Amino acid sequence: MFKTLFSKVLMVLPFITTSVFAEPIVWQVKDANREFIILGSVHAGTRDMYPLPSAFLEHWKTADSLVVEANILRPSQAPLDMSGPTTSSMLNHQQLEKLSSIASDLKLSYSSLSKNPPWLTVISIQMSLATQLGLSAEQGIDTILLRRAMNEDLPILELESVEQQLSMLKSMPDHGKEMLTTSIDDWEKMSSEFTCLINAWKSGDSQKLTALFEESQHSEAIDNVLIFDRNEDWAEQLTNGSTYQQGKFMIVVGAFHLFGDKGLPNLLKQNGFTVTQLTKSKKVQC
């Protein structure tokens, strides 16, 4: 679900917290010369996701840089490339009928969706569902922290660019058809899965988040493009890149990049870093 979502707009929210209860997971990853404080992002959020954990905010005070997947507040210079097969040409009649019903429920133009490439259609319907459920890209974690970093003149570093992300989506196997058909087939349960994901993130329930990640996995080829290849690239940058050889870095990437053997914290641990969870967790029932 949230694997394919990234926000484009922004909003400022308060950042002071005294919470001692369950909260989103924050990792400390360090060696002798550098320290990474890692928070998993949900790219569309709600007001009650804030304030962020005190463990994260305390480290923010002495940080040298904010590190994000991509600076989504910097407008992309490249026009959106919508070339390639259309959604209508890649779905069967039954799937198109259901997509039409979904578009109607979300108050989206079915005509426009059917002309989009599948990867863009799936992003459109998932983001619209998130909005319908009360989530807002304006309150996504990366958006909030990017705005704060800009206001405080904290340097912003990118692990990749918005242009690279768009290119990645365009290069999806079968143009994202599998992601779209999975979303269409599972549409009736997506609302509850979105809600469960947000609740698990708020409570720092790594077991539930891992289960949701595993349930939402696609083919190996798609998951490699969306998650695992990028994790390996980021771990290589953070370990060996000249920019990251000394200092304290606040790292914010999509939450699904952080779990399992191929998650970013574990990859950094394999590279010799010490990894510690700084926050308390609580199990959620969903």
Attribute tags:
286 residues, alpha/beta, six-stranded mixed beta sheet, globular, disordered N terminus
General description of the model:
By secondary structure, the protein is α/β, with parallel strands linked by helices. The chain is 45% helix and 11% strand. It has one domain. A six-stranded mixed beta sheet has the order 4-3-5-2-1-6, with helices on both faces. Strand 1 and strand 2 form a beta hairpin. The longest helix has 21 residues. The two termini are 16 Å apart. The N terminus is likely disordered. Pfam families: TraB_PrgY_gumN (PF01963). This is TraB/GumN family protein.
Distance between the termini: 16 Å
The number of helical segments is: 12
Strand portion: 5-15%
In N-to-C order, the SSE pattern is: EEHEHHHHHEHHHHHEHE
Number of domains: 1
Structural class: alpha/beta
Strand order of the largest sheet: 4-3-5-2-1-6
Principal-axes shape call:
globular
Q: What is the C-alpha radius of gyration, as a whole number of Å?
A: 19 Å
Helix fraction, binned, reads: 40-55%
The description of the largest β-sheet is: 6 strands, mixed
| Arithmetic mean pLDDT | 87
Instruction: List low-pLDDT spans.
Output: 1-21
Number of strands: 6
Protein name: TraB/GumN family protein
Keywords: Ion transport, Signal, Transport
Pfam family, one: TraB_PrgY_gumN
Organism: Photobacterium frigidiphilum
